[in-house]
Amino acid sequence: MQEKINKYINDINKLSIKNKEEYTHFKNTFLSKNGILNNLFNQFKSLPNEEKKITGKLLNQLKQLVINKANTLSSNEERITKKENLDLTMPAIYSGIGAEHPLSKVQNRIIEIFNKVGFVISDGPEIEDDWHNFSALNMPEHHPARDMQDTFFITLNPDTLLRTHTSSVQIRYMENNPPPIRIISPGRVYRKEDISARAHCIFHQIEGLYIDSDVNFSDLKKMIMYFVHNLFGKDVKIRFRPSFFPFTEPSAEVDIYWGLNSEADYRITKGTGWLEIMGCGMVDPNVLENVNIDATKFSGFAFGLGIERITMLLHQVDDLRLFYENDIRFLKQFNQIH
Ligand code: DAH
Asked: What's the number of domains the chain is made of?
């Protein structure tokens, strides 16, 4: 019996099966009720005890081999039939297309509003140097105003940093272009801030700069009213608050009324009901001099808008972290909104 089993083992090891018929034949020969395996196990029962040990081992080896062979053959066969059933003319499964992110949508709306009155886009790098992000903006080394914007430095060399605001683009543009200037610069900015419902370490701004002869504060105010009314409608409640920025004099901040009805409103507005959306002011003559523009001939205004804050106001989003979580249920709500 041992010899017989050894022969089967050898045969199976050499066996190659080419088609479905041969595979069925193999299965019937070895695995059916009256097949070889069952017969051998029946014969095994009547063997004398001293032979059972070795023969039993051999028989189990054969059984395992047959099962393995049958399994690999059946998965091959599955693959072959699947391939044969592949229909390349079937329509593809529709997995949905993406949509514009709410922040991009609002950014584009803002750009459009300023485009209409002659502002063109100017870009700048997110990795900045000290001069464009701070010094040229009237914030020399050790100036206390630098603390208003906690900075991520890229190397141990404090000259390379992630820009803390898009105001750096003003400097780059003025260095290379003479007045008159009318630009807006949208982009991402970075600050080492604790993440909360109203602040994040990465956010987006749009910088605006207008330089010409005889520009005054009432031009700035008119421009901001034009922008706010276009974006939020004529009925929005708005206020200008005197403020300080080293690169503008005088400076102001602009708030929009959000409301104070829920606990979230208190959290978002720090209990005031107002949400700040931008800083602005008349460009400080020191800044103009830093970029070699004659401050006796030219003046201008600048402003910096926070895109997240504006999007929160427009769509009543009470936690800015939602913009970065990419939760499809949140983002989908903006698909229909323009
Ligand atoms: N860069 C300021 C900030 O990020 C915002 C700002 C204020 C920009 C006044 C300006 C400006 O251009 O005139 O906080």
From this structure: 2
CA of 205 to the centre of ligand 1 (A): 9
Confidence tier at 85 by pLDDT (50, 70, 90): confident
Residues 170, 39 share a domain? no
What six digits make up the tokens of 220?
A: 């700035």
pLDDT digits (tens, 9 = 90+) for 242-272: 999 999 999 999 999 988 998 888 888 889 9
- Rounded to the nearest angstrom, the distance between the alpha carbon of 214 and the centre of ligand 1 is 21
Q: How close are the terminal C-alpha atoms of the chain, in Å? A: 83
State the CATH number of the domain containing residue 171.
Answer: 3.30.930.10
How many angstroms is it from 240 CA to the middle of ligand 1?
A: 14
Q: Determine the residue type at 107.
A: Q
Whether pTM > 0.90 for this model: the answer is: no
Residue nearest to atom 5 of ligand 1 (CA): 304
Q: Which of 244, 184, 176, 217 is nearest to 299 (CA)?
A: 217
214 with 263, same domain: the answer is yes
Q: Are residues 107 and 234 in the same domain?
A: yes
The verdict on 159 and 293 lying in the same domain is yes
Percent of residues, the chain, with pLDDT higher than 90: 64
Rounded CA separation 195/173 (Å) = 32
Q: Which range marks the domain in which residue 15 is found?
A: 2-84
Residue where the block lists tokens 């606990």? 263
> Which pLDDT belongs to residue 95?
73
Instruction: For residue 26, name the pLDDT band (cuts at 50, 70, 90).
Output: confident
**Distance from residue 228's CA to the centre of ligand 1 (Å):** 17
Q: Which of 167, 170, 244 to mutate to test the pocket of ligand 1 (most atoms within 8 A of CB)?
A: 167
